[in-house]
Amino acid sequence: MDARSLMQAAEEVARKSGDVALGFFRQGVQVHTKGDGSPVTVADQTAERTAREWIESRFPEDGILGEEFGETRPGARRRWILDPIDGTKTFIRGVPLWGTLVAVMEGDTILAGAAYFPPVGDMLVAAPGQGCWWNGKLTWVSAEAELSRSLVLVTDERFQTHPERGTGWRALSAKSSVARTWGDCYGYLLVATGRAEVMADELMSPWDAAALLPIIEEAGGVFTDWSGKRTAFGGSAIATNAVLAESVRQVLGATKGP
Asked: How confident is the model at residue 37 (pLDDT cuts 50, 70, 90)?
């Protein structure tokens, strides 16, 4: 499949599974705790099953890696990376800042990514060389060059897993115009569409980040892990517009990688 076809496929499966999750939103679903201490609901599981069924029916030789049901056909040439509800804690609280993430990759290369935000009706989709599309129109990161006029975002400012990174975050937020915790994938939506300049996460799984790298890059931004390496699989993430990329990472204490 060409890049445009993969973008369309990623968008379709994100929309289908996200709409399934939306059907459970604010319906008082029961919450369970997974082995890693994170919450899960029937909405997460049903939405991922929907995505898997869609992929299996159309691309039966492809692999699938999902947050809720693990990996299928790990040796496959092409794989789909799924996060049915990115921001489950937000979902549980009835806050509409969660999304559904779908990425397609071959080897270490991400071929397309889609991020769907069902409660607010926003869709982002991108593929290398194809641009980043927001609700059917091309979108770009902001051109803001001054931290003092920037909006910076983080999922959880406590930095419980990597407290040393909290020092950098506090320095960055002090230099910014506005600092908010509009986190999880919603923060990356704001960066990709030019409404925020920085989004940072201390801890990211592959299904959290894979769709976001092409979205940020095709919108003209920079996506790295906390070491400054261009990757969606470094366990952390910093997304910025292009003009602030270097200065933001310096303030955060992120080193410039290859």
From this structure: confident
Distance CA 167, CA 164 (A): 6
Residue 257 scores a pLDDT above 50: no
**Phi, psi at 40, each rounded to 5°:** -145, 150
Whole-angstrom distance, CA of residue 123 vs CA of residue 90: 18
How far is it, in rounded angstroms, from Cα 52 to Cα 13? Answer: 9
Task: Write down the residue that tokens 């506005």 correspond to.
Answer: 178
pLDDT score at 258: 38
**Distance, C-alpha 71 to centroid of its chain:** 19
DSSP 96: S
pTM as predicted: 0.96
Domains of the chain (ranges plus CATH)?
Answer: 3-138 (3.30.540.10), 147-252 (3.40.190.80)
* The predicted structure's pLDDT at residue 46: 97
Q: In degrees rounded to 5, what are phi and psi of residue 200?
A: -130, 145
Between CA 119 and CA 101 the distance in angstroms is 14
Region 226-251: mean pLDDT is: 97
Question: CA-to-CA distance for 35 and 87, rounded, in angstroms?
Answer: 17
Distance CA 156, CA 199 (A): 11
